[in-house]
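Researcher: Please translate sequence to structure tokens.
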Amino acid sequence: MLLLIVIFTFGSVALAVISIYLLTAGRPTGVVEARLESMDPSLALIENNPVTTMAGRMAEPLNRIVPISAVEAAKLQKQLLQAGYRSPDAAIAFRAVQITLVIAMPVLVATICFILDRPLNNFFIWGIIGLAFGFYLPKYVLIKKTTARQRRITWALADMMDLMVVAVEAGLALNGALNRVGDELKELHPDMHYELDLVNLEIRVGRSREDALRNLAERTGVDDIRSFVALLIQADRYGSSIAKAVRIFAESLRTKRRQRAEQASQKAALKLIFPLTLFLFPVIMLVVLGPALLNLYDIMFR
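Model: Translation complete:
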């Protein structure tokens, strides 16, 4: 038991020292990346984040020990894109954090068990719990961040539709309308602004508008964005009026938002039953029946 604790403690200290070294060492930026960042910070291909760089360097030997399949790597990269992490090193950083927690949590549990002088059975049980916690905690955080970002994009879509209708009916082409709407949403809805900026960037570098819009739907993972992208692609392909199609979609989106709000309000009554039953009704019963029970106790026992 003592030997295991010494080994795990030494490994944790070694990982901490390596992390501090890699964090302070930094990584040289390429010429192309430096020129892109000097032109426009949003055009950077790789996020020069020291934490991401450190995690990437730590994850390289860890990924050799615990490799990941190509299917799982593609799925993880898609999840990170939907959560807003567009860096190519995001998947490596996520794996590094996950593996580090898988190692660190059992070490922490072993140290606590040794300090509290617990038996060996407790160490194995709590060690397995700590290992599972360290493995699933990054996934849980990723799911929560993805859900929150998709909710923000969904709420931003209504304002985007209204601006698209105004821009297209004013005479702007679809590319110009997307660029103008992205600039208008910079302060109010930054997530949608960044996504539209990426669409405009892909179109400027030579990718077709259909592929850029499909990539927008894949990056966000929002069903309303998928419907909007399919509508734009179909209207562009068959030459129909984009302004009319966007206006009809904006009206249907308003109806859908109103239905969602009504559904949420109807669910609120059902959700209030449980806190009322657990916290409010016992207090009311105590206030109403308390004096009567005290009088009954005095009459019967005194």
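Researcher: Any highlights?
Model: The chain has three domains: 2-148, 150-270, 272-301.
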